[in-house]
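Just scan this pair:

***
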Amino acid sequence: MIVDCALYRAGVRTSEPSTVAEAANLAKKGPTFVLLALSEPNAEEMKQLAGAFDLPPLAVEDGLEGHQRPKLEDYDDCVFVAVKSVRYEETTMQMEIGELDIFIGATYAIVIARSALDIIHGTRIRLDEHRHVAALGPMATLWAVLDAVIDDGERVVDTLSDHGERIEQTVFEGDLDQSEAIYLHRRRVDRVMRSVHPVLPMLDTLERGEPVPSPTSLQPYLRDVGDHASRLTEELGQLSSRLDGLLNANLARVTMRQNVTVQKVSAWAAIAAVPTIITGIYGMNFRYFPELGWPFGYPLAIVIMVAAVVVLRWHFRRIGWL
């Protein structure tokens, strides 16, 4: 399904073709470029797209299958790029990984989105707001897509950092084990890292212009996106390290709480042992006990048991076991 289609002339959006065939005809005329964005195309749509723009068969196969790892491939007359987008819903703590497959030719830029329609919207905004960049040709579309992907990644990382701080506060202020929460959050960070990190070598290749040529005037913009991607990767690495340290701290606190519990149980067991021993001796039913014929024998046994309990409780409280 086509979600955006436009003809850019000197960086200005001049017309909006409604079909793939119309877009291909306009692209062949030049010296302009056509931006064509589709969402979840089926096999028939991909076949029509490949025939209209003469796309490389291997790239079309990758675009049809989806679930590609982030990569950049040069097919001489076409550049194929696959990138991942990241969205995170804080209220439900659900992360959505989208995919964008991009075909860049001399007079066209085709973007295929899977669960990443917001990136297409962001791409259009960037091209319309930076007409001098859009005037540089189809590679400007790739810059706009990558910039939108990294910007979305920055928002996700900010949200993950805030969530990580709340988990950290819970670990050091609460008494519940947070191992599961930390582990799940660590997995989210790893998923974002796997999506963002491959963009770095991709941007480095585009910035150098070898083997994939890009306009010289576009390289500063690609460099800027590369700087943002580098900073984002560093933040993800730091967040990952913080979560590792937090997991160790959480385990240490769990162990400490267990030790405290064991100490308390041991102390009360020792306290209960003394009266248990005394009553156990009297429960042996021997005939001759010195105290049996003495009026104060029973009260004396009670006093001894109470005194032993009081002394032991005082001792364990003094050493911090109770």
